[in-house]
Specification:
By secondary structure, this protein is mainly alpha-helical. It has eight helices and two strands, in the order ααααααββαα. A two-stranded antiparallel ribbon has the order 1-2. Strand 1 and strand 2 (182-184) form a beta hairpin. The chain is elongated and about 80 Å long.
């Protein structure tokens, strides 16, 4: 006798939600934006113009970053494809089961269901259509977009911080300095201090490489927008 195939658990692909204030994380810490005093000291330390409202700007970046973290990365194309194929299989099994229901089973099911009436014939047709549609849909899943490697949330945050820094100091703001395997520079120091206020700590090389990726991503986006 053939062994029954074990049904694998389907991933939950429903849209994820975010909430503020957040609950405690795995360490018991409740994520919260840096205080106004902390941001003002940061602005003074890095020479931001007095008229630049770094408090409001960083609060905005903090909420965008926390939203990205809560929502999480989009599942890979293979996850969506496997989900649709499994859905098609289960819909076919449901269609087969409903199509074999006898008179006794129909009567017992109808007696067990409260109004509105359960239309088993309609369920049979819909399950057949769902199986066919899911099978075709699996072939139409677009390939995964190539995203930032490593820590995409921090890299996207660094993209926003780089744009913020340029808006404060102009488009010719110093990008990044590298000496051997060590990184430095005004934006590097600002980014490092800001990430620490956000509860993110990275080594010199890790942060330097993340900034390089972020600045390259910003440059690529700007170039794409300038294309006719």
């Amino acid at each position: 006798m053939a062994k029954a195939r074990k049904r694998k658990e389907l991933p939950d692909l429903r849209p994820r939600v975010y909430s503020f204030p957040e609950g405690p994380d795995s360490t018991g810490r409740i994520p919260s934006p840096p205080s106004e005093d902390e941001v003002r000291r940061l602005a003074n330390r890095h020479g931001f113009p007095a008229q630049f409202d770094l408090v409001r700007e960083l609060e905005d970046r903090w909420f965008w970053w926390r939203t990205d973290v809560q929502i999480g990365r989009s599942p890979a194309a293979s996850v969506h494809r496997d989900f649709l194929r499994e859905l098609a299989l289960r819909a076919r099994l449901l269609n087969e089961a409903v199509s074999k229901i006898g008179i006794l089973e129909r009567r017992l099911i109808h007696n067990a269901v409260l109004p509105p009436h359960l239309d088993l014939d309609l369920l049979e047709r819909h399950s057949r259509h769902l199986a066919a549609a899911a099978q075709v849909a699996a072939k139409g899943v677009p390939p995964s977009a190539r995203g930032a490697r490593g820590d995409p949330y921090t890299i996207e945050l660094l993209c926003k911080l780089w744009r913020l820094y340029q808006s404060a100091f102009g488009p010719n703001a110093r990008r990044l300095t590298r000496t051997g395997d060590q990184f430095s520079g005004r934006f590097f120091d600002f980014a490092n201090d800001t990430l620490r206020l956000f509860g993110i700590r990275k080594s010199n090389q890790s942060l330097g490489k993340a900034i390089q990726k972020a600045q390259a991503a910003v440059a690529a986006r700007d170039a794409k927008q300038r294309m006719p």
